[in-house]
Amino acid sequence: MSKNYIIGIWDCTFYKMDEDGNVLNNPDGTVKLFKADDVDMGYWSDGIDEDDLTEIEVNLDALNVIW
């Protein structure tokens, strides 16, 4: 018997851009990223079916995020 899974949100990052579409950058030129600790994102996955998902591989050595 196969196991059933629900779809959830693992991680969500935000960025800022001005009205001209220019993103806010860090001094080194990378995109400045933000998180929203007090936002309930659980319902964002409602309506997403398993067939909508594509598995990704994450290279943790390539991530350079400071929380």
Question: What can you tell me about this protein's structure?
Answer:
With 67 residues, the chain is low in regular secondary structure. It has one domain (1-67). The chain is 0% helix and 6% strand. It has strands spanning 14-15, 33-34.
Largest sheet: 2 strands, antiparallel
Give the helix tally.
0
Query: Strands across the major sheet, in which order?
Result: 1-2
Query: What's the domain count?
Result: 1
Radius of gyration: 16 Å
The separation of the N and C termini measures: 40 Å
Shape: elongated
Relative helix content: under 10%
Q: What is the arithmetic mean of pLDDT? A: 89
Structural class: little secondary structure
Number of strands: 2
Low-confidence stretches: none
**What portion of the residues fall into strands of 2 or more residues?**
5-15%
Taken in chain order, the helices and strands follow as EE
Q: Gist?
A:
With 67 residues, the protein is largely without helices or strands. It has no helices and 2 strands. The protein is elongated.
Indicate the topology.
Elements: E1 14-15, E2 33-34
Antiparallel strand pairs: 1-2
Main attributes of the structure:
single chain; 67 residues; little secondary structure; two-stranded antiparallel ribbon
